[in-house]
Specification:
Elements: H1 7-20, H2 38-43, E1 48-51, H3 64-76, E2 81-83, H4 92-100, E3 110-115, E4 117-121, E5 140-144, H5 148-162, E6 167-173, H6 179-196, E7 199-206, H7 210-218, E8 223-227, H8 241-248, E9 251-255, E10 273-274, E11 277-278, H9 281-296, H10 301-307, E12 315-321, H11 325-336, H12 341-349
Length: 372
């Protein structure tokens, strides 16, 4: 996985060519290539992707041994796609992922990271911890930057932390308040880098579906990482993003499938959270009703939650966070035990899924669903 050329050399050479394309000017790329995106199929994501936030000490500390063991178990179990971001543990996730993948043949893995948050030195009292949910020292700060130069700087830093000379996928991370700059600067810069071969595919990663739908219409995306908006409890993406993604051949990578934990256990706890806040009573009741159906069909709430997004033809992969080797094995087993079609049919009949929700049963042996 380690490479001879330095990330600075790679990005500097590419950035000169990117600049010559005028990618820093306020223009929009449009869909320069018609028809289905071949890059999505070429990436061979696999239906189960490794989410790297826990490698960055999300909510609590993960040891180096745990992180390495999780990645190595994932490799052994056939998981191809590994997602990370500078945001995750102020770069710790990228460092750990790159180190753990060092022995893997480069062509056997797909690595994605994100741009939009530059990491810069920060003066803070000794012992101060990050205030955005990661149990790491606050020696760096995040600065939002969706400019062309910010994109290039972010990619160079990520390549260094990951010890790579190219990235398979780069997402623009949470550009909710930077829509125009993303269209005018960040995405054109990424698209130019894709043409230069520094990155393989371009996407956006967001917790809403309306803005990604606009990005799909107005830019030349390959993928959208969609968190929490196509789940057992929220199918709002049916009304905007998923139809246009299917039409344009843009792949959806579903994240946040447990809606902040409400769907992660057999029954929701009384203090369960939904989308990072206390779950309303009505949402807990709905989750319990879905759990009833799951039990009638020999499944569980988390098993169904993990499998549901893949029943839509636009969804290419589901990202699940993984902290330990044991959790990797549990997630792989979850994907192997696909819920029966009758479960989805009953959820539709009872109105627990939106009317018109398409149900595609993934084809092929279940063992291939996580290692395509």
């Amino acid at each position: 996985m380690h490479t001879a050329d330095t990330p600075a050399d790679v990005v500097e050479a590419a950035s000169t060519r990117v600049a010559s394309t005028g990618a820093d000017r306020p223009q929009r790329s449009g869909r320069s290539r018609s028809g289905p995106r071949s890059t999505v199929a070429d990436l061979r994501l696999g239906s189960l992707s490794f989410g790297g936030a826990q490698l960055g000490n999300l909510y609590r500390e993960t040891t180096d041994d745990e992180a390495r063991g999780a990645v190595h178990r994932a490799l052994a179990r056939g998981i191809r796609t590994y997602d990370t971001a500078p945001h995750y543990g102020l770069g710790l996730s990228e460092h750990r992922l790159g180190a753990a993948l060092a022995g893997a043949p480069r062509e056997t893995v797909v690595v994605s990271t994100k741009v939009g948050r530059l990491l810069e030195p920060r003066s803070a009292p000794v012992g101060t911890l990050d205030d955005e949910g990661f149990a790491v020292p606050a020696v760096l700060r995040r600065r939002r930057d969706y400019s062309r130069d910010g994109v290039l700087r972010s990619i160079e830093a990520s390549l260094q932390r990951l010890a790579l000379d190219r990235l398979d996928i780069v997402y623009v991370h949470d550009p909710d308040d930077h829509i125009e700059e993303t269209l005018d600067a960040a995405l054109p810069a990424l698209i130019a880098l894709r043409e230069e071969g520094v990155i393989g595919a371009v996407g956006v990663g967001m917790n809403q579906s309306a803005a990604p739908a606009r990005f799909v219409r107005e830019s030349d995306l390959d993928l959208v990482m969609l968190a929490g908006r196509y789940t057992l409890l929220d199918q709002s993406a049916l009304h905007d993003l998923l139809p246009v993604a299917l039409e344009r051949g843009v792949g959806i990578v579903a994240a946040g499938v447990y809606n902040s934990g409400l769907l992660s256990h057999g029954r929701p706890a009384a203090d369960a959270r939904f989308d990072y806040a206390a779950a309303p009573d009505a949402m807990i009741a709905r989750a319990n009703a879905i759990a009833d159906v799951c039990e009638r069909h020999g499944s569980t709430l988390p098993d169904a939650a993990a499998a549901f997004p893949l029943t839509h033809p636009a969804v290419a992969s589901v990202v699940l966070g993984m902290r330990t080797a044991e959790q990797v094995s549990s997630n792989v087993a979850r994907f192997t035990a696909a819920p029966p079609p009758a479960l989805w049919a009953e959820l539709l009949e009872l109105g627990l899924l939106e009317r018109g929700t398409p149900i595609r049963v993934p084809s092929g042996p279940s063992s291939e669903r996580h290692s395509s």
